[in-house]
Design goal:
Length: 365
Amino acid sequence: MKIKSFLDKYVSTFSRIAILAALASGIILAMSKAFPLFADWFNRYISSFCRLVVSKITGILPFSLGEALFLCLPLFAFVALFLYFKVFYNDDIKSGRFVVALASCLCMLFTSFVFMFGTAYNGTPLSHKLGLSQDPVSYEELEHTANCLIDEIDSVIDEIDYKYDGLSRMPYSFGELNSKLNDAYASFSSEHRFVPKLRSDVKILAVSPVMTYTHISGVFTYYTGEANLNVNYPDYSMPYTMAHEMAHQRGVAPENEANFVAFLVCMESDDPYIRYSAAMSMLEYLMNAMYSASPDEYSDFTSDMDLRIKGEMYGFSRFFEKYRESVASDVTEVVNDTYLKANGAKAGTQSYGMVVDLACAYYKD
């Protein structure tokens, strides 16, 4: 009777639904962690349908709803505190209902996470889906893969237009890039059924220059189904980063796997600049790993590199210099690292760089 009395007094119908949905979502998430094949099935059919519906609804808007809601969080918090202390604080029943309602909103966010994206972290590894055998990687294998990527770059580099500062220029608009990458994903999805078919444009972050201080080049907002891009970065990084966020939007959750799917999708394109962006971005990951493994051999490797490739990398370094050290990036690093580890990525933010293992396995096979 006491429980029924408590529910009648403080818990509205909405809150009861939200709490029950969160409990059910918790069971689904636990099952996905215990059974990777269930995680694959849920992500491929249930979550992909949810992402499709939500992304089509938010896609009507010309701006990023996810970004707008995030930027409004301080306002929401202020309004909630104001209402609590001005309207509900002196009334025990209203105060209790208000607190339960806030907790219910958090429950709905958790449910949204599970149904939109959460189980994707627990599926079978991408290497298994692609039939790649991953073994410990030697420096020689890193260098072999890097040379393969340089060959990919050499095949298109004469078609790339470079500016006076060494950075290349994207030869088309943001809208055309969206269309080209959607076409590449359509082709990739036809051959790889674990990536669902979805046409949805990536949105520009309105606060891109400010976001650069956080070192965030793109973000997928699961609660609105939107892939978003920071367009303040040099042109050559945009197609690959955009494809990375589109991979998240299609249910590829682990960062190293999203990186590699983005690479494969870009290389699926018949557009030279998109392939150039993917090969350059992957080469940078390889070169970081090569330097960590053997600085002396790394130096020998870079000495013969095409000056245009070096110019692109130096140009990015010059651009990034003023953003390199910031409090915002330190905070973002901690938050992102914690989020990734909470979802099963033991390496945290270092998991981005683990894409080199997949790249080496791919070019070895």
